[in-house]
Amino acid sequence: MDKKIKIYAIIYEKEKFMKYTEFGLVNTTDMFCDAIRNKYAVPAFNFYNMETLDAILKAAHITHSPVILAVSESAMKYMGDDILIGMIRGAQISTSDKIALHLDHGHSFDACRHAIDLGFSSVMIDASHLSLDENIKLSKQVAEYAHKHNVSTEAELGLLAGTEDENTSGTQSSFTNPADVETFVNATGVDSLAIAIGTSHGAHKRTRNDQELRFDILADIAQRLPGFPLVLHGASNIPQKLVTIINEFGGKISGARGIDTVQLRRATNMNVCKINVDSDLRLGFTAAVRKSLSENPTNFNPRDFLSAARTTMTQICVDEIKSIMGSENKI
Question: Over 90: is that where the pLDDT of 167 sits?
Fold first, then answer.
């Protein structure tokens, strides 16, 4: 083999595994410890292109809040590894920013390993659809690999209904059984646990406005796992003003209801230190694009309506960091 080709081959093999510290990212260990101690939640905002990533980072800088950049398997497929990591590298993140890159709802060991090797600082293995024993086995396998690279690991007990994409789609739901949590955490070695207490994926999270989360289950889990990081998925607020704008400008979304802000703040006082938000950002993006195109029907420059979407998403993130997460000025 030619010497130059051999050198390129060595460089390629080395770059197949990227350390997240090279991108200025951090894992979630310290941020969760501080969140539990000071009774707030770190927001996990999903992104899937340049505009959504930039909106989240702008909001984090405006509010001086730690942030988790969440990417689902389908979003990774949509962006592609090279573009995804290129955007993260181009964002010029510093460790002082307290930003983590997180795989949201990884459904296999290979998916989690791929994200870790790519440079993610945190991964979620979602084996909640399996039996308890199988969930433990797979979650432990992921945790062991992740910890070799100082990557944080999240797992899930209980099932959330609702649909956001092919990675988070289900018709059945089941509350987390508090009797299982100690065994699960001790057996797997995961760093945080997503629980099911009445949240759901998508824009239709409640059938009535007076529905409450199961704080009795949360209290039982928090008592059994004192000081252990708990996570809420499917916890978007679903601002009705965004639904109204979408419908006003040609959309058809009916019956959308989110999780009440007061309830989410209450959860942050009970060891919930990470709250996932995706639907709110999708609604904001869609509302801004529909409104912009409707009010400017001759426009065909994507930069105009994408800029409107980015601005709206930034404001949503800022508002929820302040009103729901309580993570403003927590860096």
Answer: no
